[in-house]
Design a protein that fits this description.
It holds the Pfam family TatD_DNase. The protein is of the alpha/beta class and 300 residues long. The chain is built from 10 helices and 10 strands. The strands form 2 sheets. Strands 2-4-5-6-7-8-9-10 form an 8-stranded parallel sheet. The chain has a two-stranded parallel ribbon with strand order 1-3. It binds zinc ion. The site of zinc ion has 5 residues, from loops.
Length: 300
């Protein structure tokens, strides 16, 4: 199986690096549709199997493991082959694309992403998209070219698209409209407001809510959740980043997803079990079944 600790999270300054305790289990099992299990973070590192075991014990039955470059995309695809609780997403992150373009490597790497996307347990192309926060004007053309190619790869393989959108809402929407969005399009770690939620509603695009929606300073995200069509909402950890309250800043992992799901139910003033059941059904609609037999894959 792929080794743990392929990447190390270097932002340790001023953070409490102890791992939070497990939350109370959810009444109905859900999926974390965006996590980076290859990252080591904190004092008490979990390997992917331990992390998935802890998650399963609190009602997080499956994870979409997301790549950000060739190495992590290959790792994600390999982990999904190995563990039935994992499906993979493969892509070059929007902040990687301009660097690869400068090195003359972008198209070769995109070809390899396209090859990986054909594997049966790779069910999404992501995370791709646009990031105008970390990439300046100079890198935008390469970023947009990479995003467009990822959209085409998702459509060619009839799998989902996971979008990273940082400070680039208008351009992401414009690109999706120009190129034509895949049938299953997901805004990972949705960061928009009610206006963007309405645009997603109108286009049938999914909105995945992360730990950010639990943050004190995020009333806009909670408003967006209230506006989002219930059948288009998903949830994720983006672990090891974006740990939900009350553990903001500490190491994150899929087993902490219940904090976010509980906050979603509170925000919507809905029964927790009903929210879990709906989000789980939405997730299976986007990525298909985690169960290799149900998904019609050849048994290993
Ligand atoms: Zn991510």
């Amino acid at each position: 199986m792929p080794p743990a600790g392929l990447r190390k999270r270097h932002q340790t300054e001023g953070r409490d690096l102890t791992r939070p305790a497990s939350p109370e289990p959810l009444p109905f099992a859900v999926y974390d549709n965006h996590a980076h299990l290859e990252f080591e973070d904190g004092f008490d590192q979990l390997d992917p199997t331990e992390s998935l075991d802890l998650a399963a014990a609190v009602g997080v039955r499956g994870v979409v493991q997301v790549g950000t470059d060739l190495e992590t995309s290959r790792w994600s695809a390999a982990l999904a082959q190995h563990d039935p609780r994992v499906l993979a997403a493969v892509a070059l992150h929007p902040n990687e694309a301009p660097k690869l373009f400068e090195q003359g490597q972008l198209s070769a790497h995109l070809s390899e992403i396209s090859r990986l996307a054909a594997q049966p347990r790779v069910r999404a192309v992501g995370e791709t998209g646009l990031d105008f926060f970390r990439t300046g004007e100079d890198g935008r053309a390469a970023q947009i070219e990479s995003f467009e190619t990822h959209i085409e790869i998702a459509k060619a393989n009839k799998i989902a698209l996971q979008i990273h959108d940082r400070d680039a809402h208008d351009e992401v929407v414009a690109t999706l409209k120009r190129v034509g969005a895949p049938e299953k399009t997901v805004f990972h770690c949705f960061s928009g407001d009610a206006k963007l939620a309405r645009i997603c509603n109108d286009n049938g695009w999914y909105m995945s809510f992360a730990g950010t929606m639990t943050f004190k300073n995020a009333p806009t995200l909670r408003e967006a959740l209230s506006v989002a069509k219930p059948e288009l909402t998903l949830t994720e950890t983006d672990s090891p980043f974006l740990t939900p309250e009350p553990f903001r800043g500490r190491p994150n992992a899929p087993y902490l997803l219940p904090h976010t799901v509980r906050r979603m139910a509170d925000t919507l003033d809905e029964d927790l079990e009903a929210v879990c059941a709906r989000v789980a059904a939405n997730t299976e609609r986007v990525y298909g079944s985690w169960d290799p037999a149900e998904a019609g894959e050849v048994a290993a």
